[in-house]
Design brief:
alpha+beta; six-stranded antiparallel sheet; five-stranded mixed sheet; 13 strands; rod-shaped
């Protein structure tokens, strides 16, 4: 720009050898920037350009003085270049001060000895300003390089974390796909966060054949009867999104020969603030187990039914014989009574087997006075209690209304009271107490018998379960009474539990709903 402007604006400068030398040197430096193979030279080689640039500016400034003394300010460009390069730190700082000083000295020497304070100040102030600029740029460059290094380190760290996270995600997905249960994680809106191959298989089975939809509300999910569509609010994912936590929730998916029984369980996901953020639902194929249980119940029911008919015939004929004992010897009569007693016991066992084999006990609840049922149960058990030296004590207000099937609840009470007497072989007391509340009726049967361990009390409602103590004491029973009792209470929508300790007796507590409107 100076070469173009000089002939027009300052033609006298065309006769200045120093000025013209500065222009030529600038041109040569500009040409060298393009034609020199800098990549083949050392890493500091290109710093020759700003150093020579200081020389060229010195020639321009001193050749144009006093017409253009302000050309010295052009030294800011090589100073910036040297300072920002980050190379030869000390040399760059020295050149940033010495170079401008050398540019200013020739004009100062031309005025010697008529120097003024202003001349000296301007000569010294300009190099100091360039030095300040150099230091500021140097500090800024160092800080920038430090930040760049930190960013590079952070970038490396983030890449390592990303690689580790990707590896963990791949490992997690491999583990999930290797499991034999379906797993799906959803957010609070029901969107799928994570699933595995087994769950996708379940979704293909449950989806309509024409669309194979994966949305739960479009899937073929049925209740335990295998034909009634499950309401949307009762489906596993919907329940989980609503914040429920459940286990062993049985549903049927799909239709036809591909229909599967699936046991589901769900647990909520919470964020750091304890707020609900989603849920994990697990699906387990239990078709084989359900079908095996159904076949077992059908076998027990059929066998029990076949036993019942000949037993009734045996008991009927024994009753007829015992009604006319005049033609029978006393020994034969006693033996027939033994046959009758054991046949009645066998018939009771068959009845229990048939009841336990029923997939669902039918209950017909209505407004029922529990106090009268307890009184009837105590009256029936009184002879057995007296024979075992057991005192039966009832603490129940009358009337005590509950919403229950009197026949079934009477059966459950008979089972509990009979067990309390049977498992108190050394005598004692059996307490039957009950009290009502706004939500229902709570009834307890407490004995002072042999008791059982907490582990056994947790399994006491399983079919055919008997404790080791009961077997060792040769106490008769098949382990069906309490399972039937639980089925009866469950059929009423109630609850039954057992607390016990060895040698300290057992307490059975059951709850029943209050009558509607009470």
């Amino acid at each position: 720009m100076l070469a173009v402007a000089t002939p027009l604006a300052w033609p006298t400068l065309m006769h200045s050898p120093l000025y013209l030398s500065g222009l030529v040197l600038h041109g040569l430096l500009l040409l060298a920037c393009f034609v020199t193979p800098w990549e083949r030279l050392g890493q500091h080689a290109y710093l020759a350009v700003p150093v020579l640039d200081l020389l060229a500016i010195g020639l321009l400034r001193n050749g144009a003085s006093p017409l253009l003394p302000g050309l010295a300010i052009l030294a800011i460009f090589p100073v910036i270049w040297l300072s920002a390069s980050g190379m030869l730190t000390r040399t760059s700082i020295v050149l940033s001060a010495v170079g401008p000083m050398l540019i200013m000295l020739p004009s100062l020497s031309g005025r010697f000895p008529n120097l003024t304070a202003s001349d000296i100040t301007s000569t010294l102030l300009f190099p100091l300003m360039m030095l300040a600029v150099s230091l500021a740029i140097r500090f800024a460059s160092v800080h920038m390089r430090i930040q760049q290094r930190q960013l590079q380190e952070k970038d490396v760290e983030l890449r390592e974390l990303l690689a580790a996270s990707t590896e963990r995600e791949r490992l997690l997905q491999t583990i999930l796909d290797a499991t034999d249960v379906g797993i799906v994680a959803v957010n609070s809106e029901g969107g799928i966060l994570l699933t595995n191959n087994r769950q996708r298989d379940f979704e293909r089975i449950a989806g309509p054949r024409e669309s194979r939809a994966t949305a739960e509300d479009q899937q073929l999910i049925f209740a335990q009867d295998r034909v009634s569509p499950m309401p949307a609010g009762k489906r596993p994912v919907r329940r989980a999104i609503d914040g429920e936590s459940f286990a062993d929730y049985l549903v049927w998916i799909g239709t036809g020969p591909d229909q599967r029984a699936v046991s589901t369980a769900a647990r909520p996901l919470m964020d750091d603030g304890g707020r609900f953020s989603g849920a994990v639902i697990v699906y387990t194929d239990v078709t084989g187990l359900v079908e095996a249980l159904a076949a077992n119940e059908e076998l027990v029911s059929n066998v029990s039914h076949e036993f019942r008919t000949p037993l009734n015939s045996i008991l009927g004929n024994i009753d007829l014989v015992l009604e006319d004992v005049q033609g029978t010897s006393p020994l034969s009569a006693r033996r027939l009574e033994v046959v009758q007693r054991n046949s009645e016991r066998l018939l009771a066992l068959v009845s229990d087997l048939m009841a336990s084999a029923s997939s669902a006990l039918k209950v017909h609840p209505k407004r029922t006075d529990l106090a009268s049922l307890v009184e009837t149960s105590i009256g029936s058990a009184q002879p057995q209690a007296e024979q075992s030296r057991i005192s039966l004590v009832a603490d129940i207000q009358s009337p005590l209304w509950a919403y229950a099937d009197p026949l079934r609840i009477g059966q459950a009470l008979d089972n509990l009271v009979s067990n309390a007497i049977k498992y108190s072989p050394g005598g004692g007391v059996v307490n039957i107490s009950a009290q009502g509340s706004d939500h229902g009726v709570r009834l307890q049967v407490k004995d002072s018998g042999m008791g059982m361990s907490p582990e056994d009390s947790a399994r006491v409602f399983r079919r055919f379960f008997r404790t080791d103590t009961a077997r060792e004491a040769a106490i008769p029973g098949a382990g069906l009474g309490l399972s039937i009792t639980k089925a009866i209470i469950d059929g009423h929508g109630g609850d039954i539990s057992c607390t016990s300790n060895p040698g300290k007796g057992s307490t059975f507590t059951l709850t029943l709903p209050a009558p509607p409107g009470d």
